[in-house]
Amino acid sequence: MKPVSRLTTLPGGLRIATCEMPHTETAAMGIWASVGGRHEPAALNGISHFIEHMLFKGTRRRSARRIMEDVEGIGGDINAFTSEERTCYYAASAAEHFPRVCDVLCDIYMEPRFSPRDIDRERGVIAEEIQMYRDEPSSHVQELLQQTYWQGHPLGRPLTGTHSTIATMDAAAFRSYRAAHYTAPATVVTAAGNIRHAEVVDRVSGLLAGLPKKTPAPAAAYPRIPARPRIAAEARDIQQTQLSLALPAPGLNAPLRHAFLVLNTILGANASSRLFQELREKRGLCYSASSNILSLRDGGLLEISAGLDRRNLEKSLRIVLAAIESLRKKPVAPRELRRAVEFLIGSGRMALERTSTQSSRLGNSILAKGKIVDPETITARIRAVTPDDILAAARTFLDPSRITLAVVGPNPDTPMLRKLLDAE
Fold first, then answer.
1. Per annotation, catalytic residue among 20, 25, 40, 52
2. Residue 361 CB contacts under 8 Å (≥ 6 apart), including other chains
């Protein structure tokens, strides 16, 4: 039986979406707040992520330990994440235990305790998280890349915040920020699996009835990316050099979005991609090489990453630049296009067998487009992509003058990098 998706918008603006999958034995749920790092002023950098942590530290009815025990004790799991434009609290369990999972998620969303003692303790946890990312070159190079690509904009700040910004955050700041952004119009609840839409709506509407009805202020406008290559290099006494390169990418609602998804697959999204084959399989220059898209409401970036020996940096970067230029100059062959299209469609369909993926699909679709987009609609748009569409996408977004490059490793040769990119 084909899954059935439905969306109900309550009078206060709260949106509840479900995907009924009667053949499954599990259920997944998410509560999505339309707020993330992009919404934060400089002084509150990291507050969305800090609040995400604090919601697991206890409510009026549950201690931090009981929150976890109530879900894990029935074989379920519960977690959360913060991104540039949203924060999501999610859980999954056997379908028979969905009422408890729903109650726990709604409880932490509505009744966080924000105890000063818990805040101070969690401040230390997040400080360690900041250090962890800093100490991992492959993670740090991504932060360095985004900081340089979106320089001076909230998108360029770390989602975790910094040691100085998290040091000043207290319960009053959390309550004020949460009251402004965790509102009914800015909240989406999703559920997928062996559940019933009407029952979910009835349950959630009662548990989240106290959400404020006001609409939050919008996030900062998307920044203009300068038409000049930029480089950020950091010397580290490590064995491997981490390279990360960014170029513009279309936003979630851009006309060329699906063509760009296929382009990314061809370029570096899997093991048969051009970059993986050329850098690793053919030349043995690195262990990993990939490309990924970070898509936002009104813009995004394409990130190309590789970890390699310092001596192979120039050669590898030349190969990456040549691969980008090839996509801008020459249409992809029909066979290569067909492989990329089938990869996207096949991997997407396999993922949608999972209730957690269906729940995520609903949340992402509603927050990006205000409605549920049927997976087969996306499949049809991907199948409709032509070589000319990919060429148009490459020429529109893969602009060499807007390249940003970040390198972390031993003695990075900055003059060589600047010469190669014709950077200032």
1. 52
2. 19, 352, 375
